[in-house]
Automatic annotation (TrEMBL):
InterPro entries: AAA+_ATPase (IPR003593), ABC_transporter-like_ATP-bd (IPR003439), ABC_transporter-like_CS (IPR017871), Oligopep_ABC_C (IPR013563), P-loop_NTPase (IPR027417). Residues 6-253 form the ABC transporter domain. This is ABC transporter ATP-binding protein. Keywords: ATP-binding, Nucleotide-binding, Transport. It comes from Ignisphaera cupida. Signal peptide: none annotated. Pfam families: ABC_tran, oligo_HPY. One of its GO terms (molecular function) is ATP binding.
Length: 317
Protein backbone atom coordinates (compact mmCIF):
# COMPACT_ATOMS: atom_id res chain seq x y z
CA UNK A 1 0.00 0.00 0.00
CA UNK A 2 1.52 3.35 -1.05
CA UNK A 3 1.62 6.09 1.57
CA UNK A 4 -0.63 9.13 1.20
CA UNK A 5 1.34 12.36 0.79
CA UNK A 6 -1.49 14.83 0.27
CA UNK A 7 -5.05 15.02 1.56
CA UNK A 8 -7.34 17.89 0.54
CA UNK A 9 -10.57 18.14 2.52
CA UNK A 10 -13.60 20.28 1.60
CA UNK A 11 -11.59 23.08 -0.04
CA UNK A 12 -13.42 26.33 -0.86
CA UNK A 13 -11.71 29.25 -2.65
CA UNK A 14 -13.35 32.56 -3.58
CA UNK A 15 -12.15 35.68 -5.41
CA UNK A 16 -13.53 38.86 -3.87
CA UNK A 17 -13.64 41.19 -6.90
CA UNK A 18 -15.25 44.63 -7.22
CA UNK A 19 -17.90 43.10 -9.47
CA UNK A 20 -18.83 40.29 -7.10
CA UNK A 21 -17.60 37.14 -5.39
CA UNK A 22 -16.32 34.42 -7.73
CA UNK A 23 -16.84 30.91 -6.32
CA UNK A 24 -13.72 29.39 -7.88
CA UNK A 25 -13.44 26.11 -5.95
CA UNK A 26 -16.42 24.64 -4.09
CA UNK A 27 -15.97 21.81 -1.61
CA UNK A 28 -13.23 19.85 -3.37
CA UNK A 29 -11.71 16.81 -1.63
CA UNK A 30 -9.12 14.33 -2.88
CA UNK A 31 -5.92 12.55 -1.88
CA UNK A 32 -2.65 11.68 -3.56
CA UNK A 33 -0.34 8.73 -2.88
CA UNK A 34 3.43 8.59 -3.21
CA UNK A 35 4.41 8.03 -6.84
CA UNK A 36 0.88 8.81 -8.11
CA UNK A 37 -0.05 11.32 -10.80
CA UNK A 38 -3.50 12.85 -10.43
CA UNK A 39 -4.71 14.86 -13.43
CA UNK A 40 -7.09 17.73 -12.69
CA UNK A 41 -8.99 18.31 -15.92
CA UNK A 42 -11.40 21.02 -17.02
CA UNK A 43 -12.07 24.03 -19.22
CA UNK A 44 -10.90 27.56 -18.38
CA UNK A 45 -12.67 28.74 -15.25
CA UNK A 46 -13.24 25.22 -13.92
CA UNK A 47 -11.10 25.98 -10.86
CA UNK A 48 -8.27 23.63 -11.75
CA UNK A 49 -5.44 26.21 -11.65
CA UNK A 50 -6.84 27.76 -8.47
CA UNK A 51 -6.52 24.33 -6.84
CA UNK A 52 -2.87 24.27 -7.94
CA UNK A 53 -2.19 27.63 -6.28
CA UNK A 54 -4.19 26.66 -3.20
CA UNK A 55 -1.98 23.59 -2.70
CA UNK A 56 0.96 25.95 -2.14
CA UNK A 57 -1.28 28.36 -0.18
CA UNK A 58 -0.51 31.07 -2.73
CA UNK A 59 -3.90 31.89 -4.25
CA UNK A 60 -3.39 35.31 -5.88
CA UNK A 61 -5.31 38.29 -4.49
CA UNK A 62 -8.23 39.05 -4.44
CA UNK A 63 -8.60 35.28 -3.96
CA UNK A 64 -8.77 33.59 -0.57
CA UNK A 65 -9.13 30.05 0.75
CA UNK A 66 -12.25 30.39 2.87
CA UNK A 67 -12.59 26.82 4.11
CA UNK A 68 -10.89 23.44 4.06
CA UNK A 69 -7.75 21.56 5.01
CA UNK A 70 -4.66 20.77 2.94
CA UNK A 71 -2.60 18.11 4.70
CA UNK A 72 0.85 17.74 3.18
CA UNK A 73 2.71 14.86 4.86
CA UNK A 74 0.22 15.23 7.71
CA UNK A 75 0.71 19.01 8.20
CA UNK A 76 -2.17 21.39 7.47
CA UNK A 77 -0.39 23.99 5.34
CA UNK A 78 -3.26 26.44 5.78
CA UNK A 79 -2.19 26.84 9.43
CA UNK A 80 1.45 27.70 8.61
CA UNK A 81 2.99 31.18 8.87
CA UNK A 82 4.35 32.91 5.76
CA UNK A 83 7.91 32.06 6.92
CA UNK A 84 7.02 28.35 7.33
CA UNK A 85 5.30 28.37 3.93
CA UNK A 86 8.41 29.82 2.26
CA UNK A 87 10.41 26.88 3.63
CA UNK A 88 8.04 24.19 2.37
CA UNK A 89 7.49 25.74 -1.09
CA UNK A 90 10.15 24.10 -3.22
CA UNK A 91 11.27 21.58 -0.60
CA UNK A 92 7.97 19.79 0.22
CA UNK A 93 5.76 20.99 -2.61
CA UNK A 94 6.77 22.75 -5.80
CA UNK A 95 5.12 24.05 -8.94
CA UNK A 96 5.97 24.02 -12.65
CA UNK A 97 4.15 26.82 -14.44
CA UNK A 98 2.77 26.88 -17.98
CA UNK A 99 5.20 29.63 -18.94
CA UNK A 100 8.73 28.97 -17.60
CA UNK A 101 9.39 32.73 -17.68
CA UNK A 102 7.17 32.87 -14.59
CA UNK A 103 9.88 30.94 -12.73
CA UNK A 104 13.05 32.23 -14.41
CA UNK A 105 14.51 35.71 -14.05
CA UNK A 106 15.44 36.86 -17.59
CA UNK A 107 18.34 38.99 -16.29
CA UNK A 108 20.27 36.29 -14.45
CA UNK A 109 22.13 33.16 -15.51
CA UNK A 110 20.46 29.84 -14.78
CA UNK A 111 23.39 28.84 -12.52
CA UNK A 112 22.89 31.84 -10.20
CA UNK A 113 19.13 31.38 -10.02
CA UNK A 114 19.37 27.66 -9.36
CA UNK A 115 22.04 28.05 -6.66
CA UNK A 116 20.16 30.88 -4.97
CA UNK A 117 16.97 28.81 -4.93
CA UNK A 118 18.79 25.90 -3.25
CA UNK A 119 20.64 28.16 -0.77
CA UNK A 120 17.31 29.71 0.27
CA UNK A 121 16.44 26.22 1.47
CA UNK A 122 19.57 25.91 3.62
CA UNK A 123 21.97 24.20 1.20
CA UNK A 124 25.55 25.51 1.13
CA UNK A 125 27.01 26.92 -2.08
CA UNK A 126 29.21 23.94 -3.02
CA UNK A 127 26.45 21.41 -2.52
CA UNK A 128 24.00 23.69 -4.32
CA UNK A 129 26.22 23.70 -7.41
CA UNK A 130 26.53 19.90 -7.23
CA UNK A 131 22.74 19.49 -6.98
CA UNK A 132 22.14 21.99 -9.81
CA UNK A 133 24.51 20.03 -12.09
CA UNK A 134 22.91 16.70 -11.13
CA UNK A 135 19.36 17.84 -11.84
CA UNK A 136 20.21 19.74 -15.02
CA UNK A 137 21.59 16.44 -16.31
CA UNK A 138 18.58 14.52 -14.92
CA UNK A 139 16.27 16.55 -17.17
CA UNK A 140 18.39 15.83 -20.24
CA UNK A 141 20.34 19.11 -20.46
CA UNK A 142 24.09 19.67 -20.44
CA UNK A 143 25.98 21.65 -17.81
CA UNK A 144 26.48 24.40 -20.40
CA UNK A 145 22.85 25.44 -19.81
CA UNK A 146 23.84 26.64 -16.33
CA UNK A 147 25.94 29.38 -17.94
CA UNK A 148 23.07 30.60 -20.12
CA UNK A 149 20.52 33.34 -19.66
CA UNK A 150 16.89 32.23 -20.13
CA UNK A 151 16.58 34.05 -23.49
CA UNK A 152 19.42 31.89 -24.87
CA UNK A 153 17.34 28.73 -24.31
CA UNK A 154 14.43 27.32 -26.30
CA UNK A 155 10.95 27.03 -24.71
CA UNK A 156 11.49 23.31 -24.13
CA UNK A 157 14.91 23.88 -22.51
CA UNK A 158 13.48 26.56 -20.21
CA UNK A 159 10.69 24.22 -19.15
CA UNK A 160 13.28 21.49 -18.47
CA UNK A 161 15.19 23.95 -16.23
CA UNK A 162 11.93 24.77 -14.36
CA UNK A 163 11.31 21.05 -13.86
CA UNK A 164 14.91 20.51 -12.68
CA UNK A 165 14.46 23.24 -10.05
CA UNK A 166 11.03 21.92 -9.05
CA UNK A 167 12.32 18.40 -8.33
CA UNK A 168 15.81 19.28 -7.04
CA UNK A 169 14.83 19.21 -3.36
CA UNK A 170 12.89 15.97 -3.79
CA UNK A 171 9.50 17.45 -2.79
CA UNK A 172 6.62 15.20 -1.76
CA UNK A 173 4.36 16.76 -4.41
CA UNK A 174 5.01 18.56 -7.71
CA UNK A 175 2.16 20.61 -9.19
CA UNK A 176 2.51 20.87 -12.97
CA UNK A 177 0.13 23.61 -14.19
CA UNK A 178 -0.43 23.08 -17.94
CA UNK A 179 3.33 22.44 -18.26
CA UNK A 180 3.26 21.89 -22.03
CA UNK A 181 0.60 24.34 -23.24
CA UNK A 182 3.09 27.03 -24.28
CA UNK A 183 5.25 24.55 -26.25
CA UNK A 184 5.04 23.09 -29.76
CA UNK A 185 3.67 19.57 -30.22
CA UNK A 186 6.99 17.70 -30.48
CA UNK A 187 8.42 19.44 -27.42
CA UNK A 188 5.14 18.83 -25.54
CA UNK A 189 5.65 15.09 -25.91
CA UNK A 190 9.30 15.33 -24.83
CA UNK A 191 8.36 17.27 -21.68
CA UNK A 192 5.55 14.83 -20.79
CA UNK A 193 7.96 11.90 -21.38
CA UNK A 194 10.40 13.62 -19.03
CA UNK A 195 7.74 14.14 -16.34
CA UNK A 196 6.66 10.47 -16.62
CA UNK A 197 10.30 9.40 -16.38
CA UNK A 198 10.93 11.57 -13.28
CA UNK A 199 7.78 10.20 -11.65
CA UNK A 200 9.07 6.66 -12.20
CA UNK A 201 12.70 7.31 -11.25
CA UNK A 202 12.09 9.36 -8.08
CA UNK A 203 8.62 7.99 -7.12
CA UNK A 204 7.47 11.62 -7.25
CA UNK A 205 3.81 12.49 -6.82
CA UNK A 206 2.38 14.87 -9.40
CA UNK A 207 -0.76 16.96 -9.72
CA UNK A 208 -1.06 17.50 -13.48
CA UNK A 209 -3.38 20.42 -14.26
CA UNK A 210 -4.61 20.27 -17.83
CA UNK A 211 -7.54 21.09 -20.13
CA UNK A 212 -6.64 17.99 -22.18
CA UNK A 213 -8.57 14.85 -21.17
CA UNK A 214 -6.63 12.74 -23.68
CA UNK A 215 -3.33 13.74 -22.06
CA UNK A 216 -4.78 12.94 -18.62
CA UNK A 217 -5.94 9.50 -19.74
CA UNK A 218 -2.59 8.79 -21.35
CA UNK A 219 -0.29 9.95 -18.54
CA UNK A 220 -2.05 10.07 -15.18
CA UNK A 221 -2.93 7.31 -12.71
CA UNK A 222 -6.17 8.98 -11.69
CA UNK A 223 -8.31 11.78 -13.08
CA UNK A 224 -10.49 14.43 -11.44
CA UNK A 225 -12.82 16.27 -13.83
CA UNK A 226 -13.81 19.78 -12.69
CA UNK A 227 -16.58 22.09 -13.87
CA UNK A 228 -17.50 25.48 -12.43
CA UNK A 229 -15.38 24.85 -9.32
CA UNK A 230 -17.00 21.48 -8.52
CA UNK A 231 -15.72 17.93 -9.00
CA UNK A 232 -17.94 16.26 -11.61
CA UNK A 233 -16.21 12.88 -11.77
CA UNK A 234 -13.16 11.26 -10.22
CA UNK A 235 -11.74 7.79 -10.80
CA UNK A 236 -8.60 5.87 -11.64
CA UNK A 237 -7.50 6.42 -15.23
CA UNK A 238 -8.34 2.82 -16.16
CA UNK A 239 -11.81 2.96 -14.63
CA UNK A 240 -12.59 6.31 -16.29
CA UNK A 241 -11.35 5.15 -19.69
CA UNK A 242 -13.73 2.19 -19.69
CA UNK A 243 -16.67 3.71 -17.82
CA UNK A 244 -17.18 7.46 -18.26
CA UNK A 245 -20.42 8.34 -16.52
CA UNK A 246 -20.83 12.09 -16.11
CA UNK A 247 -22.33 13.88 -19.15
CA UNK A 248 -19.62 16.57 -18.90
CA UNK A 249 -16.78 14.03 -18.93
CA UNK A 250 -18.39 12.32 -21.92
CA UNK A 251 -18.76 15.66 -23.72
CA UNK A 252 -15.10 16.50 -23.07
CA UNK A 253 -14.12 13.10 -24.43
CA UNK A 254 -16.33 13.39 -27.51
CA UNK A 255 -14.86 16.79 -28.33
CA UNK A 256 -11.33 15.35 -28.60
CA UNK A 257 -9.98 15.31 -32.17
CA UNK A 258 -9.26 11.80 -33.50
CA UNK A 259 -6.76 10.90 -36.20
CA UNK A 260 -9.04 8.63 -38.26
CA UNK A 261 -12.16 10.73 -37.80
CA UNK A 262 -13.44 12.25 -41.07
CA UNK A 263 -16.02 14.54 -39.47
CA UNK A 264 -15.37 17.45 -37.14
CA UNK A 265 -15.27 16.56 -33.41
CA UNK A 266 -18.44 17.31 -31.43
CA UNK A 267 -18.09 20.47 -29.41
CA UNK A 268 -19.71 21.20 -26.13
CA UNK A 269 -22.31 23.89 -26.77
CA UNK A 270 -22.88 26.88 -24.50
CA UNK A 271 -20.46 28.60 -22.15
CA UNK A 272 -18.94 27.87 -18.75
CA UNK A 273 -21.05 29.27 -15.89
CA UNK A 274 -20.71 32.77 -14.46
CA UNK A 275 -19.21 31.90 -11.09
CA UNK A 276 -20.38 35.20 -9.59
CA UNK A 277 -23.91 34.02 -10.14
CA UNK A 278 -23.83 30.25 -10.75
CA UNK A 279 -27.00 28.48 -11.92
CA UNK A 280 -29.10 26.73 -9.25
CA UNK A 281 -29.25 22.95 -9.06
CA UNK A 282 -26.62 21.10 -11.04
CA UNK A 283 -24.07 23.69 -12.18
CA UNK A 284 -23.77 21.87 -15.54
CA UNK A 285 -27.54 21.82 -16.27
CA UNK A 286 -27.64 24.76 -18.75
CA UNK A 287 -25.30 22.77 -21.07
CA UNK A 288 -26.36 19.25 -20.25
CA UNK A 289 -28.44 17.44 -22.90
CA UNK A 290 -29.96 15.20 -20.18
CA UNK A 291 -31.02 17.94 -17.77
CA UNK A 292 -34.43 17.43 -16.15
CA UNK A 293 -36.51 19.57 -13.79
CA UNK A 294 -34.77 17.93 -10.82
CA UNK A 295 -31.37 19.03 -12.21
CA UNK A 296 -32.53 22.65 -12.38
CA UNK A 297 -33.50 22.65 -8.70
CA UNK A 298 -31.33 20.16 -6.80
CA UNK A 299 -27.55 20.07 -6.67
CA UNK A 300 -26.27 16.49 -7.12
CA UNK A 301 -23.93 15.13 -4.44
CA UNK A 302 -20.62 13.56 -5.41
CA UNK A 303 -21.33 9.86 -4.77
CA UNK A 304 -19.19 6.74 -5.05
CA UNK A 305 -20.85 4.59 -7.72
CA UNK A 306 -18.19 1.87 -7.61
CA UNK A 307 -14.96 1.50 -5.65
CA UNK A 308 -12.99 4.74 -6.07
CA UNK A 309 -15.30 6.06 -8.82
CA UNK A 310 -17.15 9.25 -7.79
CA UNK A 311 -19.77 11.07 -9.88
CA UNK A 312 -21.90 14.18 -9.26
CA UNK A 313 -25.02 13.51 -11.33
CA UNK A 314 -28.57 12.65 -10.29
CA UNK A 315 -28.67 9.88 -12.87
CA UNK A 316 -25.25 8.30 -12.26
CA UNK A 317 -25.16 4.56 -11.81
S1 LIG B 1 -27.45 16.14 -12.68
FE1 LIG B 1 -28.71 16.51 -14.48
S2 LIG B 1 -27.83 18.35 -15.42
FE2 LIG B 1 -26.35 17.57 -14.01
S3 LIG B 1 -25.04 16.28 -15.23
FE3 LIG B 1 -26.60 14.94 -14.37
S4 LIG B 1 -28.22 14.87 -15.91
FE4 LIG B 1 -26.91 16.61 -16.44
Amino acid sequence: MLSTVLIVKDLWVKYFTSSGVINAVSGVSFSLSRGEMLAVVGESGSGKSTIGYALLNMVPKPGRIVKGEILLDGVNILKLSEEELRKIRGSKISIVFQDPFTTLDPLRKIRDQFIEFLMEHGIDKNNALKIAREYIEAVGLTERVLDSYPHQLSGGQKQRVSIAMAISLNPSVVVADEPTTALDVVVQKQIMDLISDIKRRYSSSFILITHDLALALERADSVMVMYGGYVMEMASKNELAKNMVHPYTKALFESLPRIKQRTLPKYLTGYPPDLRNPPPGCIFHPRCPFASEKCRIMKPELVEISKGHFVACHFAR
